[in-house]
């Protein structure tokens, strides 16, 4: 093999070896990225009623906007709106009109699968309770609910979840946590969500 061919092969091999390093160096660090997500959220309303402590489910959609403060810490805001009410019985329904949340949390990579995360913050909720035939015996325990639900519109919230990278910068999100607790009626709600998050 002549010297020209040897030099060409040596140069080519070095270029191929250095290419992944150069590509990795050009990638944006996660600490500099922001993200946006769209989630389908199921809300479980618990401890409804003074005596029976009923459970019921409603549905909502959630928009997530956030950013990574460093490699482990993130902050985000969420805006959601309900589209299916929780029916306690044929006379009593609970509706979440909209909610807004602010969270700060920690995320930690799990190999190449994705990340586990936990976050805590505060949520403002606006909704309404509708009670027909309040004087019927089965409905008397729900008379403590006013038209506004929950009556305490601000509450502490938390979420734990996991994400899986589907393609570059696109993640499948699975999570659950507490959305709010109504201090006047002791009713509380948990949120369970799945959806897509894109980082940029």
From TrEMBL:
InterPro entries named among the record's database cross-references: Beta-barrel_OMP (IPR027385), OMP/PagP_B-barrel (IPR011250)
Keywords, sorted A to Z: Signal
Tagged with keyword Signal: yes
Stretches assigned to the Outer membrane protein beta-barrel domain: 16-195
Pfam families: OMP_b-brl
Signal peptide residue numbers: 1-25
Protein name (database record): Outer membrane protein beta-barrel domain-containing protein
Species assigned in the record: Marinobacter litoralis
